[in-house]
Amino acid sequence: AFYVGQAQEVADALFSLPMDSDSLEVDTASVAGLMSKFKDTASSFHSLKAFAALYPLIIMLRLFKAFSAQPRLALVTRTLASAASDVGHFGIVFVTIFTTYAVMGCALFGRELVEFSTVGRAFATCFRVLMGDFDFDLMREVGRTFAILWFGTFMCLVLLVMLNMLLAIIMDTYTNVKSQVTSSETLVQQASELFRRWRSNSKGTRVSLPKIWQAFEAKLGP
């Protein structure tokens, strides 16, 4: 409602602008006020988008908390929690190597390629290269030898070695965590058990736990 009200204020200010050419000073002041409201509304709209994007993330974290009640559903979160220490130490080494290659790319290709013109852009470009989105021909036009050495060593060291080491760390932890929950019920088994209990309670062949507890309280007192 707050953002709708701001948008309505901007619309009202826009339609209330004086259109008389004889009152130029009033028009200038009105336009300045309108632009200020435009800026406030745009800032509020960006904040709204940020909150709208953050809200699904919060829901996802809440779902992860709910998954912890089922051992097999909690397998992923337990794996990440168990591997956090090893991944953290690995991350220090990875960031060091990644930063080195970003600075190297900025020094080698920064004058000719806008993708490496700053260190920040070089970081983004290195990440895109890591994901397979790159244009080697542009780097080769700058310098064939430099492009081959930088690109080849980056792909071998960062992609083939470092990322596979990260997967090895996570998969090793996943194997250890999974071995601890092999005897746990699956989600289908739990659902089947709940359905069996509900069916037994409906037929009267089983006494539910709340009724047993009420009987204890009635006999022994709360």
Notes on the protein architecture:
With 222 residues, this protein is mainly α. It has nine helices and no strands. α3 packs across α7 (144-179). The protein is flat and about 85 Å long.
Alpha-beta content class: mainly alpha
Per DSSP E runs of 2 or more residues, the count of β-strands stands at: 0
Helix content: over 70%
Query: What about the largest sheet?
Result: none
Instruction: Summarize model confidence as the mean pLDDT.
Output: 82
Low-confidence stretches: none
Strand content: under 5%
Spell the H/E element sequence: HHHHHHHHH
Number of helical stretches of at least 4 residues: 9
- Which shape, going by the Cα principal axes? flat
Q: Give me the Rg, rounded.
A: 31 Å
CA-CA gap between termini: 49 Å
Instruction: Give the assembly state of these chains.
Output: single chain
Fill in the keyword field for this structure:
flat; single chain; 9 helices; 222 residues; mainly alpha
State the gist of this model:
Helices cover 79% and strands 0% of the residues. It has helices at residues 2-15, 24-67, 75-82, 84-109, 119-130, 136-142, 144-179, 187-203, 209-220.
Secondary structure layout:
Blueprint: H1 2-15, H2 24-67, H3 75-82, H4 84-109, H5 119-130, H6 136-142, H7 144-179, H8 187-203, H9 209-220
